[in-house]
Amino acid sequence: MSDATLNAITNDPDDFAVQISDQVESFIVSVTEVAKGDDPDSAVPYLLLEVSQLLLAGGRLGAHEDIVPDERYEPDVGPEPDVDELRERLAALLDPVDVYSEVFDPYVPRSAPVACRISDDISDVVTDLRHGMAHYRAGRVSEALWWWQFSYLSNWGPTASAALRALQSLVAHVRLDTPLGELDGLDTDSDATDDGDLENAAGAVMAAEIAAPLGLKNA
């Protein structure tokens, strides 16, 4: 793609690529800010909002016709940025409501739920998005869109959707005044199929950390 073509795209705010890249960059920046821990009480509502907005971009990518990159083979974008610090910061912020139960594929009959972590999910999504952003910033717009579309369908879309359900559930339990019990051992290396696990996921921590930001109790 020529410089003139790239400039024409990046200078047009109504262009599909510009809109997707803006939403991707906004998510990365916002999640990084949340992970800093400056406003820990609002971490869950903020993440709910950011993941919801990101999935709008994902839905547009999923509904779009197949995007074909200009080059046959994906150019090397260099080493992937480390997300371990982001993952650890999010895990600390969300502890002990970080772990939740999820069915990997709802169309597989009698699928057993598995334990997942919101912090892992968000970090994995950021990794996928950054990979595409590296192409976009290098001027490989079609490659970036192809990667974001492909990885939305294969990885970050399902991952973000699962995290969204967990975040929405946490907020719903507070808003509907149906707090869960105290955390009781559910972890990503444990069996999440027990019916009592979900009821033991949060409880007092949810009320203490996200009820006030949602206006459900006096701060």
UniProtKB/TrEMBL annotation:
Which InterPro entries does the UniProt entry name for this protein?
Answer: DUF5063 (IPR032025), DUF5063_sf (IPR038312)
Q: Which Pfam families match?
A: DUF5063
In which domain of life is the source organism classified?
Bacteria
Gene3D superfamilies noted in UniProt:
Protein of unknown function DUF5063 (1.20.120.1550)
Could you tell me what this protein is called?
DUF5063 domain-containing protein
Record organism: Streptomyces axinellae
